[in-house]
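_Full entry_
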Amino acid sequence: MRKVSVISHHILSPVAEGSCEAYLACMEGRSGVRLHEGTFGVREPFMAALFDREKIYGQAAGTGIEGYSFYETLSMLSIHKALEGSDIDPAAPDTAFILSTTKGNVELLGSGADVSLGASSSRIVSRFKPLCTPLTVSNACISGLNAMIQGMRMIRSGRARNVVVCGAESQGAFIVTGFQSLKALSPEPCRPFDANRCGLNLGEAAATVILSADEGPWEIVDGAIRNDANHISGPSRTAEGSFEALRHVLQTGLAPAMVCPHGTATLYNDAMEAVALGRAHLEKLPICSLKGIFGHTMGAAGVLESIIGMMAMDKGMIPGAMGYNSPGTEPALDISSGPVSVQGDCFIKLMSGFGGCNAAAIFKKGGRQ
C-alpha cells in the first residue's frame, strides 16, 4: 500500500504562530482562553481563545492576502506558511486542496455575501492557482481529521501526489449563542476529563498539513470514519462509533504510545471517549489533551491537534492537560496536569462530533526525520 507522509505543517492560533511555537506554548502551559464580554455583540460573557483581528489583517497586509473575510484570511496565511516549508508546486496537476471547516463564513450571514462553503474554499485556494477544484469537508467536529483521511485516500488511490489540507474556524455571534443555548459553554477555563468539568471553551485557529506520496518525517498509516447516528448533539453512551473507528485503526497492528482525544470538557463527550478507549483497551495509554490551551477550534481541531501530537512524539514529551485535577470518567484515563515523557513511534488521534460522527487515525514516524 502506498505510504502517505506529512511533509510540512503550520499552526496559526491566538496562542502562538507556527507549529514549534504552538507546541512550546503547550509545554509552558500558556493558554489562549480568556473571558470575553460584549464580543460579537453577544450579551452573555463567554470564555474563548480568539484572535486579535486587526493583528491578523496587519499580518496579511502586503502579502496579496487582502480583501478577504477573516476566516479566509486565516486559511490563506496558514496554507502559505505550510507551502513555504515544502518544495511542492501548488499549481501542479497532481496537487489537490482540501478545506475543513464547520461554519466557514457564517459570521457574514445577513451581509449579502456568498457564505456557501464551496465558494469560500474556491476563494481561498485561488491565490495558489491550483488546477483542481478544492474539496470542502464539513462534518461537525471531526471535519479536520476527516479531511486528512480523505487526503490520505486521494493519494493512495492515485488521484493526487500531494494534498494540502487546511482546517480553519473563526467564531461569531451565531456560533457562540448557539452553544450558549445548548448550555455547553463553561463559565471558566475548561477542564477536559476532570471530575468538575462543566463545558467547553470555543477557539479560533487555522492549521495546515501537506500530505504527500514522497517520504516524510511522519506517516498517516490509516484512518476511519464511523457514524453511530446516536443523536443530533448527544454522544453514544456505549461509544459505538468511536470504538468502531478505534478498532479499525488498531487492525494495522501498530502499538500506539499515546492517544490525543477530542476532550471537549463536556460531561457526556468526555465520558463517551473514555468508554471507547476502555473498550479498545487503550485506557492506560498517556493522554494528550489540548482544549485547555487552544479552546475548541472545531474545523481546525483535528488538523491542529494531530500536528501537536506529532511534535510531542518527536520531542518525547506530552504537554500537560490544563484544568485537570481529578479523574472524572469511567474508566479513568492516564492524564497529567503537567508534561510527561513518552516513548514510541506512533499515536492515535480521536475525534467525535454532532450527529454521531466519529473519526480515528493512526500516525507513525516515517523514514525521513
The chain has a mean pLDDT of 95. The chain is about 30% helix and 20% strand. The domain at 218-365 is CATH 3.40.47.10 (Peroxisomal Thiolase; Chain A, domain 1).
